[in-house]
Amino acid sequence: MQAVATKYTYKILKEDQHELIDQAAAVLGHTFVGVDVAGKWIQEPMIGYLKLTYEDWYQFCKDYIESVVTQGFCAVALNDEQKVVGALVGDSNRFEIYGEPIFEGSFKDMNVVLEVLEDIDMRFLTDYKARFGKELEDGEVLHLFLLGVMAEHHRHGIVEELSNLLMASAREAAVRMMLAEVTNPKSMKLLERYQGMTKYVTQQGEYIVHKYATNDRLNMIPADVADGTYIITCDL
Fold it and tell me: Ranges for the N-acetyltransferase domain (predicted)?
């Protein structure tokens, strides 16, 4: 009988670790587009229902990691064969709002996802300015952007360890807050449970959420799968 790997090692990626970056992008590509792991279907609702391809999403993830890896907020979990089985990557840049479609060709439906993220990010930026009396600047918020785990065992523990690693890095960098745009209840429960992140409440006492039912490109997503994308945060 094959031994079951139950322990993993964790690393912050460096820019010269090209093979690990490639593997991290592959894990994120599969888990967002849709993959069966130990009989359990894993998929990000927007990416899956818009039918974005693995090839396009993998390249997007790889480009993103390569663009932010030097900040020290890209973490991976490695199995006993030193293969990436989980990745949590983010950055501390101020949110960039394009306000117009930027993706073309086979990846053009990524603009739908971009509109959702920009909708809630703009509302967060507005509330942040009102709350703190200043615009958000680089280095103030750790933005957890991509999370994917393909390990067959102890997936929840991997999420906990990855987020702990990035939280420690963020505190060392004197980041004020950790933030994620959560697109499904499974990810939300994990980050709530292991990092104490909660739905962000504006000064008007409202959650920042983009409801899929109100979006004519995303209203096919069943409410019992996910009802929208929320901003969740925790102070550091």
Answer: 73-197
The type of residue at 50 is L
Overall pTM > 0.90: yes
DSSP secondary structure letters along 155-188: HHHHHHHHHHHHHHHHHHTT--EEEEEE-SHHHH
156's CB contacts (< 8 A; 6+ apart) are: 190, 193, 194
20 assigned to some structural domain:
yes
88 within some domain: yes
Report phi then psi at 26, rounded to 5. Answer: -65, -45
Q: Going residue by residue through the chain (236 aa), what tens digit of pLDDT does each one get?
A: 344 546 899 999 999 999 999 999 999 999 999 999 888 899 999 999 999 999 999 999 999 999 999 999 999 999 999 999 999 999 999 999 999 999 999 999 999 999 999 999 999 999 999 999 999 999 999 999 999 999 888 888 899 999 999 999 999 999 999 999 999 888 888 888 888 899 999 999 999 999 999 999 999 999 999 999 999 999 98
Q: Is residue 82 situated within a structural domain?
A: yes
CATH for 67: 3.40.630.30
Tokens of 25: 């992008």
How many structural domains is the chain composed of?
1
Angle between helical axes of 54-68 and 18-33 (0-180°, round to 10): 140
Residue identified by tokens 């990010």 is 121
